[in-house]
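> call design_seq(struct)
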């Protein structure tokens, strides 16, 4: 007679194997890695010593530029598959894309009005 297997048993076994695998990889890293000492010289880029720390903060105006870049990046992410399917879907796909582009245009107008595109 076969024992009843719970629905969760295979998932728990897989979770245990994954945790054991991660622990084994970290253990092997600890055992086999070379012991490192701090560098005697600072970081060097293109023959010029660094002016500031590598983890220094960026000016706040770069965050607005980044958000605008991401908006246009997402636009391209959605436009590539849209180009492939617009012929089959027809007019509703065109209306949806113009609605999407209108929302992005409104966001750019808002950013422009708030001064996100002004550098001085």
């Amino acid at each position: 007679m076969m024992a009843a297997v719970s629905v969760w048993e295979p998932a728990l076994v897989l979770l245990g194997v994954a945790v054991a695998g991660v622990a084994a990889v970290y253990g092997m890293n600890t055992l086999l890695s070379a012991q490192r000492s701090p560098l005697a010289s600072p970081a060097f880029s293109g023959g010029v010593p660094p002016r500031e720390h590598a983890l220094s903060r960026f000016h706040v105006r770069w965050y607005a530029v980044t958000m605008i870049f991401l908006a246009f990046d997402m636009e391209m992410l959605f436009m590539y598959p849209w180009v492939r399917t617009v012929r089959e879907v027809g007019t509703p796909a065109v209306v949806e894309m113009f609605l999407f582009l209108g929302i992005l245009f409104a966001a750019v107008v808002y950013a422009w009005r708030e001064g996100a595109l002004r550098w001085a």
